[in-house]
Amino acid sequence: MPNTSTRSERSLSLILVFAGTLFVSATLMFILQPLFGKLMLPLLGGSPAVWNTCMVFYQMLLFFGYLYAHFLATRLQPLRQIQVHGALILLSLMVLPVALPEIMTPPTESNPTLWLVWVLFISIGLPFFVLSTTSPLIQKWFSHVGHHTSHDPYYLYAASNIGSLLALLSYPFIIEPNIGLSAQKITWSAGYIGLILFIAACAWLFMRLYQNSANTEIDDLETAQAEPTLLTKLHWLVLAFVPSSLLLGLTNFVSTDIAAAPLLWIIPLTLYLLSFVLVFSRWAKGIHRVSVWLQPVVLLPFIAYSFINPAILPYWVDLALHLSAFFLAVMVCHGELAKYRPHTAYLTLYYAIMSFAGMLGGMFNTFVAPFVFNAIYEYPIMIVAALLLRPADKIWQNEQWHVWAKQAIFPLALFGLGWVIYLAASDLGVYMDNIGTALILFAGLTYAFRRQALSLALLTAVIIFFIVGLRTIMSNTVYQERTFFGVLSVRDSVLLNEQGRPEKYQELFHGTTKHGAQRLGAHEQEPLTYYSRPGPMGQLFKEFDSSNEQWQVGVVGLGAGALACYAKAQQTWVFYEIDPVVVEIAKNTQYFSYLRRCTPKAPMIIGDARLSLQSEADAKFNLLVIDAFSSDSVPTHLLTQEAIQLYLRKLTDNGILAFHITNRHLALKKVLADHAKQLGYAALIQEFKPKQEIPLVVATDWFVLAKNAQALAPLYKQGLGNWQKPALYFNMKPWTDDFTNIVSIWK
Fold it and tell me: How would residue 442 be classed by pLDDT, with cut points 50, 70 and 90?
């Protein structure tokens, strides 16, 4: 029997010091993530992939930090642990205050993922590594200080995750709206110094109490614990891998169609961290039972509406379904992970495996999936994988393979039947309503298999497989490519022309948002969609038709190249595009011929437009068009005061800056109207709606600015209902490179 003195310490202050250290460390870690993600965005066009790459970097350092803590705690004596860790902390002070390197230019012709990882490493690698070591190392130290709860220090993990949650939630609602990036960097660095003092206090308590307690008996007790089996370790691995991959898959879904902003990236990550708080709490058993019960309940409407028929729901309801399904899947996986946690003798090993699995999940989504899949298929795959990890089957303990085989019979039969229908049907479009109804009924049937994890997972996989296949067929996708900046696709479509006859045309999509279209035959040189002749851009070129013969025009964001067909022979046009694949598509006459027919010699500048424009001569352009989208989001660094001032410097005295601000979710006109007021520029806005149905002429919003009102006078004469002066917004805080706030412009 161990000496009772080993568990006699009941001081609350001891818990507060160790828990406080974990709390502060986690808070700093999860403020640094959105802070540095926001610093990196302007260098790479605001792509959601920036955040996912940052997440992989954080997961990699987290794993190496946990591995370091495991080595330190199991191989070195207490004094040597403190000496080594102290030296590492002192070394990390060299990079304070945290900031981007001054000269770092991203590659323009190749995937920038590895470049981004390198920049992160040299900028914040050491401080983040120290933060990543804190949780397992401090918990391990606490297990040796002789407190009466030292035998189960996992509850301290809740303090760590509460700090993470508070940091994430405070960033978009408190920190970002009130503190600029410069102040954030300095404040964070000061907080890091405070954390060092906390770690020093823990080290002092660890040494004093470790030396004064009968730790040899504790060590003997730990040595007597059986090491977890290889199967148990693999179980831990997959239970942590799937939620990590799901996190990045859902982040892609959320951020692609709204905005590349920390606010939206934070929502899935917040739910992910909340699951850890709950599964390691004192109410974990009850919460886990409820999560296992709720998962198939939410899965039914999730499959029926978010996958089979998403158009029927408002966007916020669809988003809520995705978030709910994600949260329950993560709760079930992490609940199982917490349930099978080991004795404290293997605490650091447990955390090392968890972090390794998290890193693998992130690497799969960032480095493997984009090269294996041409769309974001890893997200539904991991939904199915999460269902396979439900505890109902006891797959990891049960070796009765015939039980699994019985559970697979119905889903496999359904798969075979569906495959026959898929091959036999000559025109699936005729049967789409019936097929959709049948799939929704099958989605309902999944609930009957809620106690059979294998059947539930396979049935869900079959339904999603057919949905993805049918969508590909029905969308008539002729080309699809996945790049660092998103998923691009070209689709064949049919419209009714002016004579009421069907006519083929082609569309360019980025994610789920249309980025251009072109009719064939006689209408090949007709700009369409957001750039139509009846619309704002058509009006602009018409009003200046008699005076724009010698114009120099710059266009940020290529799309299908529709704007090119406003070009005249004597004009000079330059296009700026961050994604080389967009240029390839626009130049490929199998898909679009705008560029070949209208501006075959126009140069294409690859890279972030703001960086590219800095090298252009001042007063170069008569017209500069900003049409840079990532699906339906606008990179915020292209909307700041500094960006507007850069654009206006590149314009002649009577030059015009035109912004495309059509957006489903963000009122971008507020930002630009405030800039016009603050900087003293003339501005007009048009929220265009077609007065009659014209093929591929759509509603669109445009905002124009100029150095003086005279430059915009021809447009303003268009009168009421067309170009108008923008409203004044008195509650706006100006957007700068140091400050942006997505919440303030949410529709």
Answer: low
